[in-house]
Design a protein that fits this description.
By secondary structure, the chain is an alpha/beta fold. Helices cover about 40% and strands about 15% of the residues. The chain has a single domain, classed as 3-Layer(aba) Sandwich (Undecaprenyl pyrophosphate synthetase). It has a six-stranded parallel β-sheet with strand order 3-4-2-1-5-6, sandwiched between helices. The site of one 3-methylbut-3-enyl trihydrogen diphosphate has 10 residues, from helix 1.
């Protein structure tokens, strides 16, 4: 791997990706869906390397949603196996490249072996600095918000928290993404224009980018196209253009 470099100032600091289109990629080639997921894993490697090379500090990838548990059991178990293999083959390299690995989502639903492997990977890479790679696994935005509301309600009931202290920051601290900045750019591959229960709270002011490129085909050029689109946008956060300095453009 090449060494990491400084992020251009107008580039996103945190990129989140809904990696969609693996099944269709396979279908078009008369291959089983799982082959699409296998190819998708190669795109994950490529996207991680892209972020590291360009100094993007946070990459959050939607790998498996709460709703994906409803897929045929062969696909679910195949995906779990692939995730285990991905960790097995990539973790040492992630660590060698100073990448911190973490997951967001309800790990209690994952097979015990995979969960153990994930926890070991998180522990091993916890002090790494060059990139935070978060994989959303068994993740649902609504479930995440509900769990936070329950935790906060419990703390209030126990007298540990005052109602007036439930600020946006306090709420965010109860989400899986605790410690991560909100995404600047959300990319969805595969042509659908929806959020599919991803980072509902965190994407309040995220720039959205949709591309027809299927996830296994998402290469450096496709990533660059998304970043270029981002740098051309003006983020106003509810204000008017005249209130914004040049620095507020994109990144
Ligand atoms: C995304 O690809 C990967 C997961 C949801 C696990 P899909 O499997 O949804 O691919 P399409 O949308 O059927 O093409
Ligand atoms: C979103 O893709 C979830 C992931 C990429 C992990 P889906 O394929 O599950 O989304 P829908 O069903 O088309 O909304
Ligand atoms: Mg899909």
């Amino acid at each position: 791997m090449s060494s990491s470099s400084e992020r251009p100032p107008d580039w996103p600091r945190h990129v989140a990706i809904i990696m969609d289109g693996n099944g269709r990629w396979a279908h078009r080639r008369f291959l089983p869906r799982l082959e699409g997921h296998r190819q998708g894993a190669k795109s994950v490697r490529r996207a991680v390397e892209f972020c590291r090379r360009h100094g993007i500090e946070f990459l959050t990838l939607y790998a498996f949603s709460t709703e994906n548990w409803q897929r045929p059991s062969a696909e679910v178990s195949g995906l779990m196996k692939l995730l285990g293999q991905f960790l097995e083959s990539e973790l040492d390299e992630l660590h060698a490249n100073d990448i911190r690995f973490r997951t967001i989502g309800d790990l209690t639903r994952l097979p015990a072996r995979l969960r153990t492997r994930i926890e070991a990977g998180q522990e091993k890479t916890r002090d790494n600095q060059s990139l935070v790679l978060s994989i959303a696994l068994s993740y649902g935005g609504r479930q995440e918000i509900l769990a936070a509301a329950q935790a906060i309600a419990h703390a209030v009931k126990m007298g540990e928290l005052d109602e007036s202290s439930i600020t946006e920051d306090a709420f965010s601290r109860n989400l899986y993404t605790q410690g991560l900045p909100d995404p600047d750019l959300l990319i969805r591959t595969g042509g659908e224009m929806r959020i599919s229960n991803f980072l509902l709270w965190q994407c309040a002011y995220t720039e959205l980018y949709f591309t027809d490129v299927l996830w296994p085909d998402f290469d450096d050029q496709a990533f660059l196209d998304a970043v270029k689109a981002f740098t051309g946008r003006q983020r106003r956060f509810g204000m008017i253009a005249e209130q914004l300095g040049a620095g507020e453009r994109a990144g």
